[in-house]
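RECORD TYPE: inverse folding
INPUT: structure tokens
STRUCTURE:
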């Protein structure tokens, strides 16, 4: 085996200069992908965990320059799902074999801490064998704690970029990387299974910045690592920037698999949006999770974080069947399983 891949496999680490070569030069790719797949098979076999994504609000108080549901995008029709609608998504999802429900949304203060607690306990009472994952942004320690005590198991909060200057180029002054990182440390301290990650190919991103992202993930040691390409949205200040590229994304998935052998790594919807086989390729590069949409079809289009987002017209059952085929074609299989990270 090539020395650089062997070193990454054995040490779960590489010095910056070698990571830079691996990211920028394609000559090690066949061995990198092969090794990443063999490590994923060592820990997870061919299992692919599924998470039912419920995008329950597209209202957001934040104004991230890249995001299609940013506050100042007046072209979005805003919606919120009721508790009944959310529970109906879960019921549908449970029948389809989902054992994790991910409640994701913009940062929407309409939902009080108590109303989120009620949602969590509602889901956990009906489906005690399922995990509840939250992905609703930056909150105080006490709020995260209340939601954890109500039964939430996991929290997804991508750090987006680990470099302060870069963070400030992607977000308005009202937001700070320091707060986002603090939130991640608080979530860990409380006991959540934590997911973080970043977009690949955001405006102004360099290889050095990607390496900083990997270094931050090494410090954080989270359970889930979600990365996906940045994709431009027509109604954002970044609408003239180009999309992130598939190959770099796949390489980073493979590198992350070798650095964090037991991590839960999704083949993201964004990956499937920049390439019709993106999610299958993501699985082959080391990903072991997919997150199909369980939201009602009539609101799907309104949760458009980026242009041409896929799966906005299909019912959950159709999506589930389509993914089943895709996963099998890539050489893996979807399992009905709560899908915690291996320890
Ligand atoms: N509000 C929560 C938060 O901030 O974590 C969750 C919702 S947020 C829309 C979910 C993720 O979407 C972000 O972490 C970001 O990485 C991703 N995202 C937003 N705009 C995107 C874009 N234009 N291209 C790719 N991913 C994007």
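DESIGNED SEQUENCE:
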């Amino acid at each position: 085996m090539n020395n650089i891949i062997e070193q990454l496999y054995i040490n779960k680490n590489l010095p910056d200069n070698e990571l830079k070569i691996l990211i920028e030069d394609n000559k090690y790719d066949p061995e990198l992908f092969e090794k990443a797949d063999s490590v994923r098979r060592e820990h997870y076999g061919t299992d692919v965990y599924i998470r039912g994504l419920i995008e329950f609000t597209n209202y957001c108080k934040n104004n991230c320059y890249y995001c299609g549901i940013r506050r100042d995008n007046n072209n979005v029709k805003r919606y919120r799902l009721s508790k009944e609608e959310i529970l109906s998504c879960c019921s549908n999802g449970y029948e389809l074999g989902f054992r994790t429900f991910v409640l994701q949304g913009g940062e929407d203060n309409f939902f009080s801490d108590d109303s989120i607690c009620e949602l969590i306990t509602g889901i956990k009472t009906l489906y005690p064998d399922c995990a509840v994952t939250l992905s609703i942004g930056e909150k105080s320690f006490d709020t995260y704690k209340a939601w954890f005590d109500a039964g939430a198991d996991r929290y997804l909060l991508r750090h987006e970029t680990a470099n302060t200057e870069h963070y400030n180029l992607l977000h308005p002054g009202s937001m700070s990387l320091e707060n986002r990182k603090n939130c991640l440390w608080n979530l860990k301290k409380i006991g959540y299974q934590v997911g973080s990650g970043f977009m690949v190919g955001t405006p102004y991103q360099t290889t050095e910045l990607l390496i900083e992202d990997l270094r931050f993930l090494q410090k954080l040691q989270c359970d889930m690592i979600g990365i996906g390409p940045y994709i431009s949205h027509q109604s954002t200040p970044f609408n003239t920037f180009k999309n992130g590229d598939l190959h770099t994304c796949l390489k980073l998935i493979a590198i992350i698999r070798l650095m964090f052998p037991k991590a839960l790594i999704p083949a993201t919807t964004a990956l499937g949006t920049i390439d019709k086989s993106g999610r299958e390729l993501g699985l082959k590069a080391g990903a072991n999770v997919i997150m199909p949409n369980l939201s009602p079809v009539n609101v799907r289009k309104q949760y458009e974080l980026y242009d041409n987002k896929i799966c906005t017209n299909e019912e959950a059952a159709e999506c589930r069947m389509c993914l089943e085929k895709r996963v099998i074609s890539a050489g893996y299989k979807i399992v009905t399983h709560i899908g915690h990270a291996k320890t």
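NOTES: The two ends are 27 Å apart (CA to CA).
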